[in-house]
Design a protein that fits this description.
single chain; about 425 residues; alpha/beta; Rossmann fold; 2 domains; 14 strands; binds adenosine monophosphate
Length: about 425
């Protein structure tokens, strides 16, 4: 199936050809016809599956085919959990609408100055991509009217709820009163509060779960290195970063403070490193991502929320210096590499006592994470032979996952170099 078969407007197809999109992804094939038909949909899809285009392409198609009378306020509202994702969705909207010059996208998120956003909101626009908190601020100041929203998209709904945005999301949805409003919900998992939200906001939604094969990051090789202690971890990281096949890497840590101190270590070792975390203001984050795109950063040390929306095709490796707190976060993290069909390598460093977490990740993804060792840096505590190989029965298990309590980041106790 090609994009032509989806009968999308010619101008959109022209942009897709330029972007090198030859074929719709599985989720696009399955969902776009329903979106075009105006149905409500709840879709279980991870980042990297092409979910953004799944709602943007039909939205743009509708604009192209049915221009509509210009009212202030958006025709499409996309709610997202983080600024990074907001910027990414807005950037995709701009790319896809390149040959639909009358379509304007506005992106608003917290942490950025109000005057620029106020100015953007005072002119006509069709697509609004927003984080819930800042959107509520603008609504309360009467700068946005949502009564013309024909399509409401809740992107990464599970994450929005995890971040405590349930009330703002409901409040916003209640203001999108267009009689034929269509609601699309995207979430890594469709369960618990996400399902409750879907029931409240949607009208007989069609449920689409992308088959596990397509969300398993098949093109990403996953490896695990077991470590004895923090110092051992540092040495293995150092060894990994010396690998000449690394183009750019994202190293995940569990705390902001530790991300900063790890960057200091890496800079001291002469590596082009930078941090990306929630303590940085929006300008700093944007600048860092721009430097990453330009290749000025080789190793980005990031925390989960900050790195969620990063879409940089040249990232060859993801390194979990600390394991994430949930299986979903693991899938999101490793999806930062292997973008748009490229291959990637995801490496995790874990203590032997965390082996059960690795097993849970394997069950969740239905994929095996192979144990690797660095010659001369083998763990002293022996990893027993693999017992956690996921069998066929574990494939496609309902999304689940461990949630550990808040992790304290490892204290910086030693340097990379020197003996163990
Ligand atoms: P997403 O899951 O929306 O974050 O998309 C992941 C990446 O895949 C983004 O870089 C998209 O631009 C890209 N992408 C989306 N759909 C396609 C497609 N049909 N063909 C090639 N790349 C795509």
């Amino acid at each position: 199936m090609s994009f032509k078969d989806l009968d999308l407007n010619e101008s959109i197809q022209k942009a897709l050809v330029e972007l090198g999109f030859t074929e719709p992804t599985p989720i696009q094939k399955e969902a776009i016809p329903h979106v075009l038909a105006g149905k409500d949909l709840k879709i279980s899809a991870q980042t990297g599956t092409g979910k953004t285009a799944t709602f943007l392409l039909p939205a743009l198609h509708k604009f192209a085919e049915k221009p509509g009378t210009k009212v202030y306020g958006p025709r499409v509202l996309v709610l997202v959990p983080t600024r990074e994702l907001a910027l990414q969705v807005a950037a995709e909207a701009v790319k896809f609408s390149k040959y639909l010059p009358k379509i304007k996208t506005v992106c608003i998120y917290g942490g950025a100055p109000y005057p620029i956003q106020n100015r953007q909101l005072s002119r006509p626009y069709e697509i609004l991509v927003a984080t819930p908190g800042r959107l509520i601020d603008h609504i309360e100041r009467r700068r946005i009217d949502l009564s013309g929203v024909e399509m409401l998209v809740l992107d990464e709904a599970d994450r929005m709820l995890d971040m405590g945005f349930i009330k703002p999301v409901e409040q916003i949805a209640a203001l999108a009163t267009h009689e034929s409003r269509q609601t699309l919900l995207f979430s890594a998992t469709l369960k618990g509060n996400v399902m409750k939200l879907a029931e409240k906001l949607m009208d007989k939604p069609i449920e689409i779960a992308v088959a596990p094969e397509h969300v398993r990051h098949d093109h990403i090789e996953q490896r695990i290195y077991y470590v004895d202690d923090l110092h051992h971890k540092f040495r293995i990281l150092d060894h990994i970063l010396n690998d000449t096949t690394i183009n750019q890497a994202i190293v995940f840590t569990s705390t902001k403070r530790f991300a900063d101190s790890l960057v200091d270590e890496l800079l001291e070792k002469g590596r082009k490193a930078a941090a990306l975390h929630g303590d940085m203001n929006q300008n700093q984050r944007n600048r860092t991502i721009l430097r990453l795109r330009r290749g000025e950063i080789q190793v980005l040390v990031a925390t989960d929320v900050a790195a969620r929306g990063i879409d940089v095709l040249t990232i060859s490796h993801v390194i979990n210096f600390d394991l994430p707190n949930s299986t979903e976060d693991y899938v999101h993290r490793i999806g930062r590499t292997g973008r748009a069909g490229a291959s990637g390598i995801a490496l995790s460093l874990a203590a032997m006592k965390d082996k059960y977490l690795v097993t849970q990740i394997e069950r969740f993804t239905g994929q095996q994470i192979t144990t690797h060792t660095v010659p001369g840096l083998e763990p002293k505590a022996r990893s027993e032979s693999r017992s956690s190989r996921p069998g066929p029965s574990s494939r496609g298990r309902p999304a689940g996952g461990f949630r550990r309590g808040p992790q304290r980041g490892p204290q910086r106790s030693s340097r990379f170099s020197g003996g163990r």
